[in-house]
Amino acid sequence: MAQYMFLIRDDIQAYSRYSREELTALIGRMGEWSQKLKKAGVHRGAEKLTDEAPRVLRRRQGELVLDGPFAEAKELIGGFFVVEARDEAEAIEIAKECPALQYASEIELRTVAESCQVVVERGH
Amino acid sequence: MGDVVSIVPETQVRTVVDHLFRNQAGQMVSTLTRVFGSQHLELAEAVVQEALIQAMQTWPFKGVPDNPAGWIVQVAKNKALDHIRHDRFLIDKEEEVRVAFDHLSSAGVQASSFSIEDAVERHFDRVLRDDQLRMMFVCCHPVLSRESRLALTLKTLCGFGVTEIARAFLTPVETIEQRLVRAKRKIRDERVPFEIPEPRELAGRLDSVLEAIYLLFNEGYAASEGDRLIRRDLCEQAIRLAGLLASSGPGGTHPKTHALLALLQLQASRLDARLDAQGDILLLEEQDRSRWNHRLIRLGLESLDRSAEGDELTDYHLQASIAARHAVAPSFEQTDWAGILSDYDELLLRNHTPVVALNRAVALMMVEGAEAAITEVEAIRNLPPMHRYYLLPATLAEMYRRAGRMEDALREYQQALTLVATRPERRFLEGKMRSLSS
Question: What share of residues in chain A are helix, strand, coil (percent, to 5)?
Answer without folding.
Answer: 40, 35, 25
